[in-house]
Design goal:
By secondary structure, this protein is of the alpha+beta class. It has a single domain, classed as Alpha-Beta Plaits (2-Layer Sandwich). It has eight helices and eleven strands. Strand 5 and strand 6 form a beta hairpin.
Amino acid sequence: MVQFIGGIGRGPQDPAGEAGWGGEHPPRMGFFTDTSVCIGCKACEVACKEWNALPADGLALTGMSYDNSVGLGASTWRHVAFIEQERPVGVEEGAEGGGGGDSMRWLMSSDVCKHCTHAACLDVCPTGSLFRTEFGTVVVQQDICNGCGYCVPACPYGVIDQRPEDGRVFKCTMCYDRLGVGAEPACAKACPTESIRFGPLDELRAAAATRVTELHAEGVPEARLYGHDPEDGVGGDGAFFLLLDEPEVYGLPPDPVVTTRDLAAMWKHAGAAALTLAAGVAAAFVSRGGRR
């Protein structure tokens, strides 16, 4: 049985269409990152920086991991996480004695903007700098961004970030310029193990479910999908993952909820409350006038 993480907030089936692209736009495109075959080479990070002309992160390691970029940011749109785990081996659960010991394993995952179905960053942007493309992705137009930073706390994943020089925000564009000419994103093109897969989102979801079933059959019961489910708190991600442990281990929120998901309903209730209040004030005014 495929294990999914999430469970609320079904998103629109066609976010690009709802954004005004009409019925003839391309299918929604996305990323499926299979962490079970990621080797941590960082080819995706390098390709992303090279293609998008992003500043270098420096060569200093963090001291906690073989990592020099720490996490996603305004100048790091792809980040490969290295998680070192100590696991007991050689002793079955509940067994006494035996020749068991400790074994280390690496969990590696290339993180990226999730291009949410319900994108809070897009919802709160006052200038229209963030927009939904015909491919269903979310892109920032830096020449329109005013550096207000409203989108930064709105993102449930902590992805979008400001540059200190002028406050403008930057994040993954899923190589929008490459998609327009029929090319795949630079990170997916550079991945040597096909850990990062790019394509129509519906096809990726089907392939991901098949991959989880295969891993379960091969004795990897902890394999699970993250961000796949349209019923989750962001309506499903345009970039989702196959994980080998809990999301928190990878630095991902276990149940992300977009802050603006219920905004329309909130305005509806606020409007109803305002009308009720106005009616009450009017009734009181009329009643008071009639007693004079």
